[in-house]
Amino acid sequence: MKNFDVVVIGGGPGGYVAAIRCAQLGLNTACIESWLNDENEPVLGGTCLNVGCIPSKALLDSSHHYSFIKHEAKNHGINAPSVSMDVHRMIERKKNIVQTLTQGIAGLFKKNKIEWLKGHGRFVSAYQIEVQPAGDESGESYQVTAKHIIIATGSVPMSIPPAQVDNELVVDSTGALAFTDVPRRLGVIGAGVIGLELGSVWNRLGSEVVILEAMDEFLAPVDRQLANEAEKLLKKQGLDIRLGSKVTGTGCNNREVTITYENDEGKQQVVVDKLIVAVGRKPNTQGLGANEVGITMDERGFIQADEHCRTNLENVFAIGDVVRGPMLAHKASEEGVAVAERIAGKAGHLNYDAIPWVIYTWPEIAWVGKTEHELKAEGADYRVGNFPMAASGRARAMGETDGMVKMISDSKTDRILGVHILGPNASELISEAVLAMEFDGSSEDIARTIHAHPTLAEAVHEASLAVDKRSIHF
Ligand code: FAD
Ligand code: AMP
Q1: Phi-psi region of 108 (alpha: psi -120 to 50; beta: other; left: phi over 0)
Q2: 212 Cβ closer than 6 Å to some ligand 2 atom
Q3: Kind plus residue range of the DSSP H or E element containing 32
Q4: Nearest ligand 1 atom, CA 45
Q5: DSSP conformation letters of 254-278
Q6: Which one of the ligands is nearest to 171 CA?
């Protein structure tokens, strides 16, 4: 039986990064991964690379270019009267990007001498895992032992009884990344991150999109000021977002789906050609045998882990979507790095208060730290600086004037408590704020930092000046 210092179960952004960091630190490491792609080939990368972050961003980029050419190019003097969309080519492009990146991870495993065990892992004991070869239920299983085990088994889409996924007319996020043509009418259940991103892709390509959201509030975790502005902008783009609309049933004939939902005015119906169910994700512990060896789960099925990602078994850690905290790839990866370093006897560190969030709509929404409503509820004493993108020279030059930067800092110490950005490239702009918060920075620190002109980053600078009511351009 093979024996390793570390066995990682799951090769997504949590697991593969943990495995690479373990190997860098001289630990003899294996990673068990069972994912098979559409061609039935074993692949690394998990949800993020195969059916999550990367393919969704590939389609968001393609559809953004299409929408730009159709609606904005003329403002730049570019005439493109007969633009059309080749969905097949767009999906092929996405597939190629995914393939290049997943093969890249396999290459990194080779380089770092990580053994990739292609199969499904199941706990036999706290130190022993059985591996069933991927896609081969009748194939012979084998066991490996490890001093340390890292669970990185991720998450899977949640389903709801009123909308059963049939992968024909009713799909989950994975199906929505592989439509072969543009649905004329598209329904989306859930106005969360995934629902808004995928709804945006197909809306830009011409679908009439209706998004049904049970909650009355739009994007509850987002700062109210930005969420309200984003709602207006997305509606203007054509997304028919219906809040306070709880889906209670669906009926399919062989061509279309009738969705029944309830709102303040009672029972409503809407008919669509395709329906995306985007109601959230749940931790994936299926067939893991974690219960059987006594690993504690919480009431929602997440593996219980302390702030160091240690489970109740001393040598077993858990990271990423399968444990508490935001379901974000970079959170999974950073937990992977921290756990690897702890196993190697170092002081792995992760600051849960400085994790950036991004929603890749257009404009993008990105934030770090606390929202104004959270701070208000805490009774915190804070100052706010706002700067509209419309006052940024670079945003004007780009023709991207929607949105704003909002910075919140402590009234007494000026320490930055939260930064919220709605605007072009917000996903990139937020890094400066994350870095400042990581160093316990103040709005004055950003205000004293020289920002290149003309850049969108100047909007972050101006927001920091606005905290002290000394913004130059607004
Ligand atoms: P996963 O990526 O889910 O990987 C878990 C892996 O474990 C899988 O490959 C699975 O096959 C394997 N596995 C599970 N059980 C076993 C077992 N018993 N044996 C062997 N292997 C096993 N996050 C962002 O930060 N930014 C984004 O832009 C973003 N966009 C997204 C878009 C979509 C459409 C979706 C669905 C998700 C998106 N996410 C995004 C979320 C992100 O994908 C997850 O947070 C991230 O993948 C979690 O990483 P993980 O390693 O914990 O789990
Ligand atoms: P997220 O958890 O961010 O992926 O978002 C999922 C969204 O789906 C949440 O905002 C839920 O309120 C919403 N949701 C869940 N069930 C339903 C339902 N039956 N009808 C409408 N919206 C729903």
Answers
A1: alpha
A2: yes
A3: strand 29-33
A4: 9
A5: SS-EEEEEEETTEEEEEEESEEEE-
A6: 1
pLDDT tens for 139-193 read 899 999 999 999 999 999 999 999 999 999 999 999 999 999 999 999 999 999 9
Nearest-CA residue for atom 9 of ligand 1 = 46
Gap between the Cα atoms of 282 and 160, Å rounded: 12
Give the mean model confidence (pLDDT) for residues 451-468: 98
Q: Which CATH superfamily is domain 170-279 in?
A: FAD/NAD(P)-binding domain (3.50.50.60)
Q: Which CATH class is domain 355-467?
A: alpha beta
Say which CATH superfamily domain 2-157+282-350 falls into: FAD/NAD(P)-binding domain (3.50.50.60)
- Based on C-alpha coordinates, what's the Rg of the chain? 24
Mind telling me the catalytic residues? 453
Q: Which two tokens stand for residue 226?
A: 């930005």
E strand or H helix at 211? strand 208-212
Tokens standing for 328?
A: 């974000």
Q: Residues 274, 278, 279, 281: is their CA dihedral positive or negative?
A: positive
What is residue 221's three-state secondary structure? coil
For the Cβ of 155 lying below 6 angstroms from any atom of ligand 1, the answer is yes
Using the atom order of ligand 1, give the atom closest to the CA of residue 319.
52
pTM for the structure as a whole: 0.97
| Pocket of ligand 1 contains residue 52 by CB under 6 Å | yes
Looking at 224-320, list the stretches that DSSP marks H as alpha helix, in order from N- to C-terminal side.
224-236
Residue 355 alpha carbon to ligand 1 centre in Å:
17
Name the segment(s) of the chain with CATH classification 3.50.50.60: 2-157+282-350, 170-279
Instruction: Kindly state if the Cβ of 209 falls inside 6 Å of ligand 2.
Output: no
389 and 459 Cβ atoms separated by less than 8 Å: yes
Contact 192 CB / ligand 2 (< 6 Å): yes
